[in-house]
Amino acid sequence: MTLQPSMREALLSAVPGLRAFGISLTGNVDRADDLVQETLVRAITHIDSFRPGTNMSAWLFTILRNLFRSEYRKRRREVEDPDGSYEAGLTSHPEQTGRVELEELRAALAKLPTDQREALILVGASGFSYEEAATICDCAIGTIKSRVNRGRARLAELLAIGEDREFGPDQETRAVLAAGGRG
């Protein structure tokens, strides 16, 4: 089967976003890459079911999400590490503050209910509008807005963020920057 150049370009341009969404869902780069690959295979195989003029990215994200959920249901019965001790032993300790903060964010995201995490990733990280995210998640726009709002509030609580100024450099770094970089 030969794809039209515009379809091919739309598929390829969606890959980075699909990969990021896959990583956020699985927490594993290799599994995410497998999900993206399977998503593209399914999309190409069923390209005739795509309606031209609609959002290709939303269609692809929906396929990826459905694949993830199907895989999750299968893997749920195959758990070999119920207490997470093996997984915890595989992690390496971050060497820089940014990596620590990223790990804290990942851990906090993992504590959110799946629906809130998906909504936050789609709207906050992947740049989808509320309407597009609602289409991907097959729910009402108000539901997505509510999930994003509750997810953001819970994430701020988990990360102990009380004010906007708590984002970015810590107090010591801000003092050095204010002094013109002199120590």
SSE run = HHHHHHHHH
How many distinct folded domains? 2
CATH homologous superfamily caption of the largest domain: Winged helix-like DNA-binding domain superfamily/Winged helix DNA-binding domain
Largest sheet: none
Strand content: under 5%
CATH level 1 name of the largest domain: Mainly Alpha
Beta strand count: 0
Rg (CA only): 19 Å
CATH architecture assignment name of the largest domain: Orthogonal Bundle
Shape: globular
Question: Total number of helical segments?
Answer: 9
Quick take:
With 183 residues, the chain is mainly alpha-helical. Helix content is 69%, strand content 0%. It folds into two domains: 1-80, Orthogonal Bundle (Rna Polymerase Sigma Factor, Chain: A); 97-183, Orthogonal Bundle (Arc Repressor Mutant, subunit A).
Question: What does this 3D model show about the protein?
Answer:
The chain folds into two domains: 1-80, RNA polymerase sigma factor, region 2, helix turn helix motif (Rna Polymerase Sigma Factor, Chain: A); 97-183, Orthogonal Bundle (Arc Repressor Mutant, subunit A), CATH 1.10.10. It has helices spanning 5-26, 29-45, 56-76, 85-90, 97-111, 114-125, 130-137, 141-158, 171-178. The mean pLDDT is 81. It has nine helices and no strands. The protein is globular, with a radius of gyration of 19 Å. The chain is an all-alpha fold.
